[in-house]
Design a protein that fits this description.
Structural class of chain A: mainly alpha
Strand order of the largest sheet of chain B: 1-2-3-4-8-7-6-5
Order of helices and strands of chain B: HHHHHEEEEHEEEE
Structural class of chain B: alpha+beta
Shape of chain B: elongated
Distance between the termini of chain A: 45 Å
Strand content of chain B: 25-35%
Distance between the termini of chain B: 72 Å
Strand order of the largest sheet of chain A: 1-2
Helix content of chain A: 55-70%
Oligomer: heterodimer
Largest sheet of chain B: 8 strands, antiparallel
Number of helices of chain B: 6
Radius of gyration of chain A: 20 Å
Number of strands of chain A: 2
Largest interface: A-B, 67 and 74 residues
Number of strands of chain B: 8
Shape of chain A: globular
Strand content of chain A: under 5%
Largest sheet of chain A: 2 strands, antiparallel
Number of helices of chain A: 8
Chain lengths: 178, 235
């Protein structure tokens, strides 16, 4: 009798934990990228030359993060179990940045950039991809400073960098402290 | 098989099953993003040999990625000097650096994340031999797979525009005296520059074997952030 009670109690506790686990997983609201509203009819994506500029900026940001030993481990984590490969990361970054600048893309969706396979890369939301990386607020600031410098280096106007800054600010909670 | 034995077997099976159900539930829970944000669960995972992914990367992988990226950023000539606050890039090892920091009363934590790091917080700039009362929020000394110093990074946050203009000018003067004119400048060092979100000013002394770079940016959530990078560019 005691063991029957014990069994049902354990079943109840275990079941509750399992249900909570799935509920937590389901209730993680995916981040929906809201594209920057252009001040006139031309989006920032079009203004700065479309995808080739996005790719160039992402290549330079990637290189700047990779040579800095403090930021590199967060980049190199890709390709490990549960994380993107490097190609997929860059492909999804291209999609995200293109979408953020008001290009004809949505994020997170499937990316076909950078030699993606025929079915494309399925990009995940920012919150999920950064969970477990333990990115501190200080590390997030380093990333942002490096990104802002690369934008400026590529001729993005100060007013547009400010606009992009507001969008980056909106991503902070999904990236840092997770 | 007697009734007593059967009952005992039944109880054992039930107990085992109940333990398994609890374990499955707990395992499912610790894999959720929510659970991974709980510090205790992270520490437990590290203790069990499943560290935070960024702590699981190898120095060799970091060196490979770094050497691939170097041609994109490095200059074409060698630096006349490679200033690094008295340390010798590619030469000072982690024990020497640790001893140096200790003699200056700095408390630094050793962190392993592929490379080895000495991470120091709240560092008075005066301890680095600079005539200044400024405090550096974070100073990171990075060491490669051979245990040699490859970079010193300084981060200051929550500065005012006035503070950053003074600091930036001092650093740029010091570097120009040692390295000559910067190889790239971007933006204007002025209070006005740091009133717009993400507006950024940087100076760069980029060589084939060395980089000194100072970047300041106004981040609405952190005030003005000043980031100094002094890195060896040899791989």
């Amino acid at each position: 009798m005691l063991f029957r009670r014990l069994f049902f109690s354990a079943l109840l506790v275990g079941g509750s934990l399992a249900i909570s686990a799935f509920t937590f997983a389901l209730t993680e609201v995916p981040f929906q990228n809201s594209a920057i509203e252009p001040s006139d009819s031309l989006s920032l994506f079009e203004k700065y030359g479309g995808y080739p500029t996005v790719k160039k900026i992402n290549d330079q940001v990637g290189a700047a993060l990779a040579v800095d030993p403090v930021t590199a481990p967060f980049l190199v984590v890709v390709g490990q179990p549960g994380h993107d490969t490097f190609d997929k990361l860059l492909s999804c970054l291209d999609l995200q940045f293109s979408s953020l600048l008001g290009g004809p893309y949505a994020y997170p969706e499937t990316s076909h950039f950078r030699g993606a396979p025929a079915e494309g890369y399925t990009c995940v939301d920012m919150r999920t991809i950064h969970t477990g990386l333990n990115i501190s607020n200080e590390a997030f600031d380093r990333f942002t400073v490096i990104l802002a410098d690369v934008l400026k280096k590529n001729g993005v106007e100060d007013a547009d960098i400010t606009t992009i800054g507001s969008a980056v600010n909106g991503l902070k909670d999904d990236v840092a402290g997770r | 098989m007697t009734t007593k034995t059967k009952e005992g077997l039944k109880q054992t099976v039930l107990l085992t099953m109940s333990v398994l159900v609890v374990l499955m539930g707990a395992l499912a829970f610790v894999h959720t993003p929510t659970a991974q944000r709980i510090p205790f669960i992270r520490e437990l995972a590290t203790w069990l040999g499943y560290p935070c992914p960024s702590e699981g990367v190898s120095a060799m992988t970091l060196e490979h990625v770094r050497s691939e990226a170097l041609p994109v950023v490095q200059g074409s000539t060698n630096a006349p000097l490679r200033p690094a606050f008295g340390f010798a890039l590619d030469n000072t090892d982690i024990q020497q650096a640790f001893a140096w920091l200790q003699t200056r009363g700095l408390i630094c934590e050793r962190v392993e994340r592929g490379f080895s790091y000495l991470k120091c917080k709240e560092v008075p700039e005066g301890t680095l031999g600079i005539n200044s009362r400024s405090v550096i929020d974070e100073m990171d000394l990075s060491f490669n797979s051979r245990g040699k110093l490859i970079a010193i990074n300084l981060l200051r946050r929550k500065l005012t525009a006035d503070q950053v203009v003074g600091l930036f000018s001092g650093i740029s003067q010091r570097l120009t005296q040692l390295l000559g004119e910067p190889t790239r400048t971007s933006g204007e060092i002025s209070v006005k520059s740091f009133s717009q979100k993400l507006n950024t000013v940087s100076i760069e002394y980029s060589f084939k074997d060395y980089l000194a770079k100072v970047t300041a940016s106004y981040l609405p959530w952190s005030g003005v952030v000043l980031y100094e990078q002094y890195m060896s560019y040899t791989d």
